Amino acid sequence: GDLKYAFHDGSSWQTQTVAGATTQSGLYASLALDAAGFAHIAHLNNTTGDLMHTYYNGSTFLTETVDATGNVGQWTDIAIDGAGGLHISYYDYGLQNLKYAYQASAIPEPSTYALLAGLTGLGITLIRRRCQAKA
């Protein structure tokens, strides 16, 4: 039930547990590295059925919920674009939809994901995160 991150430090492999077994996190995990080389992992929390984003902020791993509507987060795929935007595609088991979440910056700002559009069947649901610039 643990989500672990492994990397080679030049001489040996290092591993770190980033989400505990109590939440059954780490299923359907997908990994992307941002421009700084920091890990971003999309995965399913199997206890709650939520899509999670776990990321390294330079000193520790943090986890946030991306989508908690129904049983979501299966078959994740995560990517970071050239502008630092985070993109996650994933499957909603309950609605049997392919979904897509977008965040303008790979490092999250406190805000809420907003549902933009949804289709039934083999449709697509878009979720976008609004980020505010800090002065």
How do the strands line up in the largest sheet? 7-8-9-11-10
Radius of gyration: 15 Å
* Major sheet description: 5 strands, mixed
Structural class computed from helices and strand pairing: mainly beta
Rounded mean pLDDT score? 78
Distance between the termini: 40 Å
Determine the fraction of residues in helical runs and give it as a percent range. under 10%
Model description:
The protein has 135 residues and is an all-beta fold. The chain is 0% helix and 57% strand. It has no helices and eleven strands. 28% of the residues are buried. The C terminus is likely disordered.
Question: Quick summary of this structure?
Answer:
The protein is mainly β.
Task: Give short descriptive properties of this protein.
135 residues; mainly beta; 0% helix; 57% strand; globular
Topology, pairings included?
Elements: E1 3-8, E2 13-19, E3 25-33, E4 39-45, E5 50-56, E6 61-67, E7 72-80, E8 86-92, E9 97-103, E10 113-117, E11 124-129
Parallel strand pairs: 9-11
Antiparallel strand pairs: 1-2, 3-4, 4-5, 5-6, 7-8, 8-9, 10-11
